[in-house]
């Protein structure tokens, strides 16, 4: 197959290359997709405001019909979050103008750039959960006989403060998943999942809360239980990865693969994320 003649070109260039892109082994990205996007404002301006849930209305059980009751006051507060994290790529493709990059090379590098950038966002989202949540006091190693009940206890504590179980997601490590697979209670819930739920990355349920497995969790983290409304992600403008000609007067007949994403994440209530570790976590 010949590459096309570009503007002011003279000859077709014959290239020999593989028919398929190189498969790369990678863990699945899914945790950041569970974060909410409840911010107010335009992230393009560099900061957004996220509403912090206020307390319930104060009530009285001894209303005085003659004198009424004292006024109470509440306020809706907002947490300002700077959108200041960046991830970018600028990879040199020597010997090819952008229009002449072979299809298989183009497909492989575009896919690789997109995954690499997305995996950084995923890692940052998990680190935000860990640094902004509440760490369980029990750091003992999980076993096949304790793993299910330990996770169920974390869920119970979150239900006690009024979090809707439908808002919860359990993120487990591969090691924790292996322990759970030996528990019949967990195995039964995994077998009852619908195809649509499975396609979203869910691998089971505990106390009605869906479970996903992430290989991005640090080795010292057994699982994270997150309440989605209090886990916020902001994704502002981006430049999707693409090949761009180099016109700098120094590089000849070359191009670069460029992409840029500006973003951030935040936890607005530490009680809405619980982390079970088996030691100290370094992020």
List the helices and strands and how they pair.
Layout: E1 2-3, E2 13-14, E3 47-52, E4 77-82, E5 85-93, H1 103-132, E6 134-135, H2 147-160, E7 168-172, H3 174-180, H4 184-191, H5 195-199, E8 202-206, E9 209-213, E10 221-227, E11 231-245, E12 255-267, E13 273-277
Parallel strand pairs: 6-13, 7-9
Antiparallel strand pairs: 1-2, 3-4, 5-12, 7-10, 8-9, 10-13, 11-12
Structure overview:
- With 283 residues, this protein is α+β, with helices and mostly antiparallel strands.
- The chain has one domain (31-54, 76-277).
- The protein contains five helices and 13 strands.
- It has a six-stranded mixed beta sheet, sandwiched between helices. Strands 5-12-11 form a three-stranded antiparallel beta sheet, covered by helices on one side.
- A hairpin with a 2-residue loop joins strand 8 (202-206) and strand 9.
- The chain is flat.
- The two termini are 48 Å apart.
The general outline is: flat
Number of strands: 13
Structural class call reads alpha+beta
Calculate the mean pLDDT score and round it: 83
Order of helices and strands: EEEEEHEHEHHHEEEEEE
Beta-strand proportion? 25-35%
Tally of alpha and pi helices = 5
In spatial order, strands of the major sheet run: 6-13-10-7-9-8
Q: Poorly predicted ranges (pLDDT <50, ≥5 residues)? A: 16-21
Profile the largest sheet: 6 strands, mixed
Q: How far is the first residue's CA from the last residue's CA?
A: 48 Å
Rg, please?
A: 25 Å
Return the domain count: 1
């Amino acid at each position: 197959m010949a590459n096309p003649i570009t503007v002011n070109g003279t000859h077709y260039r014959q290239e020999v290359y593989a028919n398929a892109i190189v498969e790369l082994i990678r863990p699945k990205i899914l945790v950041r997709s569970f974060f909410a996007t409840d911010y107010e404002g335009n992230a393009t301006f560099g900061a957004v405001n996220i509403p912090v849930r206020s307390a319930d209305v104060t009530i009285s059980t001894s209303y005085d019909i003659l004198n009424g009751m004292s006024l109470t006051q509440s306020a809706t507060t907002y947490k300002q979050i700077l959108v200041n994290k960046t991830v970018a790529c600028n990879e040199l493709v020597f010997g090819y103008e952008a229009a002449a990059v072979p299809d298989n090379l183009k497909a492989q590098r575009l896919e690789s750039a997109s995954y690499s950038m997305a995996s950084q966002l995923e890692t940052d989202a998990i680190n935000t959960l860990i640094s902004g949540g509440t760490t369980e006091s029990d750091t003992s190693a999980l076993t096949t006989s304790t793993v299910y009940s330990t996770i169920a206890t974390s869920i119970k504590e979150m239900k006690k403060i009024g979090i809707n179980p439908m808002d919860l997601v359990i993120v487990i490590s591969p090691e924790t998943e292996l322990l759970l697979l030996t528990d019949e209670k967990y195995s039964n819930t995994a077998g009852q999942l619908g195809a649509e739920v499975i396609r979203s990355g869910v691998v089971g349920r505990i106390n009605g809360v869906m479970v996903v497995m992430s290989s991005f969790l640090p080795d010292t983290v057994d699982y994270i239980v997150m309440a989605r409304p209090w886990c916020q992600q902001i994704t502002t403008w981006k430049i999707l990865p693409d090949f761009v000609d180099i016109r700098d007067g120094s590089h000849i007949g070359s191009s670069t693969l460029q992409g840029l994403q500006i973003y951030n994440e935040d936890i607005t209530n530490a009680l809405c994320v619980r982390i079970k570790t088996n030691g100290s976590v370094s992020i």
